[in-house]
C-alpha cells in the first residue's frame, strides 16, 4: 500500500456515553496507538493502557479502525479523547541474500519509515521554533542545572537565549512562622527594604532581615533605608540653600548699586529654599523619586541625574560655587531665583530744596513746573483713612500704602471712563509683584516682551474663588472642556509620572479615536483619518509583550459560494466559516498582509467536495483528504508569508456543532 494521508492523530469530545471512537489511519498492531484522555478544565493528560482501559479493532486496515473503551472507562463530558499513531521506531525486516525480492515486506518497511517520519513531524509541528526567515546564533544554553534552578528562559539584548531571574509573588510585610517559597517578595517594616527569597523556608526570629538568623535566605532588592538616608541629605542641602538666601539678603544690604535687585534676589532665593525644603518633605514619602528631582550639592551644572539618566525639566541642585539654587528648564540650567532686572521702581521727580513741610494742607491740586495739573486731591469730610507715601533707604523700594483709623483699608486705583491702570515697562516688561502676608515671598504678573508684538485683554475667571492655571506648575482642571487642545510630548498621572507619551508627525492625516459607550456597548479605540485604509499598530518596548487580561477574539464571519467558488477577503474576515451548498473551490484571498493568520471552519451540509487555489500551500505540499460528509466539520489555519498562504494546522472530521 501507499501512505497517502499525513493524518497521525484524531481527537473527540467525550459525553459520558460514547465508548467507540474511530482512528483514520493505518496501524500494523494494536500497540501502535497511544490513547490519551485530557481533562479540559485543568489540562491534565492521562495515557490509557491497552486492554485495561480500551481495546483496538482494525489493525492492518488501510482506512483505519476504532478503539472501544472498557466498562467503567467511558470518557466523560469535559474530557477530550486523543488517538495518536506511534509505530515503533525500529527496523524489523531482514533481507536474505539471493532470495526473491520481498515486495510486500519491503513496502511495509517503507510505510513504517514514512509513518515514523509523520510522527516526528507531528511533534515538530507542536514545538516552539524560529520562523524560516528568522535567525539565531545558537538555540543551546550551557548554564548548568544548579545555576539555572528557579530561573526562566529569556532573550538577551542580542535576541539570543539566556537564563535569567524571575521575580515571584509579593507576600506583603515579612512575618515570623510563615512558609516562604523561592522568589517570594516581602517588605521589612523596620527598614522599609524589599527582599527576595532565594531559599524556600519557614521564617523565624525578628526584623531587620539583615541580622535575622535566616538572612542568607534573602536577597536585598530595594534598599529603602539607604534611600531614606539620601533623603535626609537632600533635606540638609535644602537647609543650606535657605542659608544661602540669608547670605544673599545680607549682601544686598551692603551693596552700593543694584540694591533693589539684590533684595529681590534674596527674597526669591528664600522662596526657592522653602520650595526645596518642601520637596525634601515630599521625598520622605518617596525617597527615590526625590533623588531623581533634587540632585544635591554640586560645584557645576550636571549633565545627567544621579542615576546617570538624561536630565528632565524641573530638576534642581544647589551650586556650591555660586551659592545658588538652580533649576533645569528642559534644555539648560538657570538660577531658581527670580530675575530682578524686570522689577519696576516707583520714584518721584519733584525737587524740594531746603524746604520742610510739616503736615501741610494742600488744596485740590498739585501743579508741575509749567503750571499744569500734576495731581488732583479730593478732601472727604470726617476722613479717617488716607494713603501714605514713604521713601526708602538703599536696598529698599519707596511705598504707597493705605493707612488710617480703620483696621482693614483697601487702596483703590481708578481709571477714567474706559481707561485702565497701566504698569509701564522700563527696559523690561511692566510687572506687578504680589507679596505674601509677611512680605517674604512674592509672585509677579508680567507683560509679554516688546518682541511678542501683542496688545490684548486677559479676563480673570468668573464664578467662585479659584486659582489661575500655570504653564509650569502642576494644576488640576475640573469640569473644563478643552476644544482641540495641543498637548506636548506626554500626559502625566496625578503623581506626576508619565501616563502617555505623545509623538507628533509632520503633515499627519491619520490618528486614532477613543469613543466611550452607552450601557450594553463597549468603548472603542479606532484608527481614523484621511487615508482610505488605516491600520492600528501596537508596539512593545524591547522584549515586552502585549497582554490581554481577558478574552480576546476575532468574530467569526460567514463565507458563501457562488458558481462553485468562494471569494475571501482576508482582512475583513480573518476568522471565517463556510456552510457548503455545492462543490466548492476557495479562490485566492484578497487584501493579504505578510505575517497575518486566517482560520477556516468548513461545515458540510451534504457530501460536497472542497478544493483550494494554488496560493494555499499545504503541509508536505499535499492537500488533506477533506471529510466531505454531511454533518461533519474540517478546520484549517493558514499564515501568509508574503507570497503564499502556508498551512499552520488542521483538524478534520469533527462532529458539526
Furnish the topology, listing elements before pairings.
Layout: E1 9-13, E2 20-23, E3 33-39, E4 45-47, E5 54-57, E6 65-69, E7 79-85, H1 103-125, H2 145-148, E8 152-155, E9 161-164, E10 170-173, E11 179-180, E12 185-188, E13 193-197, E14 201-202, E15 218-222, H3 224-254, H4 259-283, H5 287-293, E16 294-298, E17 316-319, E18 324-328, E19 333-335, E20 365-367, E21 373-376, E22 385-390, E23 399-404, E24 431-435, E25 442-446, E26 490-492, E27 498-501, E28 510-515, E29 524-529, E30 557-558, E31 561-562, E32 565-566, E33 575-579, E34 584-586, E35 597-603, E36 610-612, E37 616-617, E38 632-640, E39 645-655
For this entry, give a set of tags.
657 residues, alpha+beta, Seminal Fluid Protein  PDC-109 (Domain B), six-stranded mixed β-sheet, four-stranded antiparallel β-sheet, elongated
Amino acid at each position: 500500500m501507499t501512505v497517502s494521508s499525513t493524518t497521525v492523530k484524531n481527537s473527540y469530545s467525550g459525553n459520558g456515553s460514547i465508548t467507540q471512537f474511530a482512528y483514520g489511519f493505518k496501524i500494523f498492531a494494536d500497540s501502535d496507538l497511544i490513547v490519551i484522555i485530557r481533562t479540559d478544565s485543568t489540562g491534565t493528560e492521562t495515557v490509557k493502557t491497552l486492554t485495561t482501559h480500551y481495546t483496538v479493532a482494525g489493525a492492518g486496515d488501510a482506512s483505519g479502525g476504532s478503539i472501544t473503551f472498557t466498562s467503567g472507562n467511558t470518557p466523560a463530558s469535559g474530557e477530550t479523547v486523543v488517538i495518536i499513531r506511534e509505530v515503533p521506531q525500529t527496523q524489523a525486516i531482514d533481507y536474505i541474500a539471493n532470495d526473491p525480492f520481498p515486495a510486500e515486506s519491503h513496502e511495509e518497511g517503507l510505510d513504517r519509515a514514512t509513518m515514523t517520519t509523520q510522527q516526528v513531524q507531528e511533534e515538530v509541528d507542536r514545538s516552539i521554533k524560529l520562523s524560516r526567515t528568522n535567525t539565531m546564533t545558537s538555540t543551546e544554553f550551557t548554564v548548568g542545572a544548579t545555576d539555572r534552578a528557579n530561573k526562566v528562559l529569556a532573550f538577551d539584548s542580542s535576541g539570543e537565549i539566556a537564563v535569567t531571574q524571575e521575580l515571584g509573588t509579593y507576600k506583603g510585610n515579612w512575618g515570623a512562622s510563615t512558609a516562604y517559597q523561592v522568589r517570594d517578595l516581602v517588605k521589612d517594616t523596620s527598614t522599609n527594604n524589599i527582599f527576595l527569597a532565594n531559599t524556600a523556608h519557614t521564617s523565624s526570629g525578628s526584623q531587620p532581615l539583615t541580622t535575622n538568623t535566616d538572612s542568607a535566605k534573602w536577597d536585598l532588592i530595594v534598599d529603602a533605608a539607604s534611600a531614606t538616608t539620601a533623603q535626609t541629605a537632600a533635606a540638609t542641602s535644602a537647609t543650606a540653600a535657605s542659608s544661602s538666601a540669608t547670605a544673599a539678603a545680607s549682601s544686598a544690604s551692603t551693596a552700593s548699586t543694584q540694591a533693589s535687585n539684590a533684595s529681590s534676589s534674596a527674597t526669591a532665593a528664600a522662596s526657592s529654599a522653602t520650595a526645596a525644603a518642601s520637596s525634601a518633605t515630599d521625598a520622605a514619602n518617596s525617597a527615590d523619586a526625590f533623588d531623581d528631582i533634587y540632585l544635591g550639592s554640586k560645584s557645576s551644572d550636571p549633565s545627567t541625574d544621579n542615576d546617570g539618566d538624561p536630565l528632565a525639566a524641573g530638576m534642581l541642585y544647589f551650586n556650591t560655587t555660586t551659592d545658588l539654587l538652580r533649576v533645569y528648564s528642559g534644555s539648560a540650567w538657570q538660577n531658581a531665583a527670580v530675575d530682578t532686572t524686570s522689577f519696576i521702581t516707583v520714584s518721584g521727580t519733584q525737587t524740594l530744596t531746603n524746604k520742610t513741610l510739616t503736615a501741610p494742607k494742600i488744596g485740590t491740586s498739585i501743579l508741575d513746573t509749567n503750571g499744569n495739573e500734576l495731581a488732583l486731591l479730593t478732601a472727604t469730610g470726617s476722613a479717617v483713612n488716607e494713603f501714605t507715601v514713604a521713601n526708602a533707604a538703599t536696598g529698599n523700594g519707596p511705598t504707597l500704602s493705605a493707612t488710617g483709623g480703620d483696621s482693614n483699608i483697601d487702596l483703590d486705583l481708578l481709571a477714567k471712563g474706559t481707561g485702565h491702570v497701566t504698569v509701564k515697562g522700563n527696559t523690561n516688561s511692566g510687572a506687578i509683584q504680589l507679596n505674601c502676608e509677611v512680605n517674604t515671598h512674592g509672585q509677579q504678573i508680567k507683560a509679554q516682551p516688546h518682541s511678542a508684538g501683542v496688545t490684548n485683554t486677559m479676563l480673570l475667571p468668573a464664578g467662585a474663588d479659584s486659582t489661575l492655571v500655570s504653564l509650569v506648575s502642576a494644576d488640576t482642571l475640573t469640569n473644563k472642556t478643552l476644544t482641540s487642545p495641543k498637548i506636548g510630548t506626554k500626559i502625566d498621572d496625578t503623581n506626576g509620572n508619565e501616563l502617555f507619551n505623545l509623538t507628533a508627525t509632520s503633515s499627519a492625516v491619520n490618528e486614532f479615536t477613543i469613543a466611550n459607550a452607552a450601557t450594553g456597548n463597549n468603548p472603542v479605540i479606532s484608527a481614523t483619518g484621511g487615508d482610505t485604509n488605516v491600520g492600528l499598530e501596537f508596539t512593545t518596548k524591547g522584549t515586552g509583550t502585549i497582554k490581554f487580561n481577558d478574552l480576546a477574539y476575532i468574530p467569526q464571519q460567514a463565507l458563501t459560494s457562488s458558481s462553485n467558488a468562494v471569494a475571501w477577503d482576508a482582512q475583513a474576515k480573518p476568522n471565517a466559516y463556510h456552510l457548503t451548498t455545492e462543490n466548492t473551490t476557495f479562490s485566492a484571498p484578497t487584501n493579504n498582509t505578510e505575517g497575518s493568520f486566517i482560520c477556516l471552519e468548513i461545515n458540510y451540509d451534504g457530501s460536497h467536495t472542497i478544493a483550494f487555489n494554488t496560493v494555499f500551500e499545504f503541509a508536505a505540499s499535499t492537500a488533506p483528504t477533506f471529510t466531505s460528509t454531511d454533518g461533519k466539520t474540517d478546520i484549517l489555519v493558514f499564515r501568509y508569508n508574503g507570497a503564499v498562504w502556508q498551512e499552520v494546522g488542521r483538524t478534520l472530521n469533527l462532529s458539526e456543532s
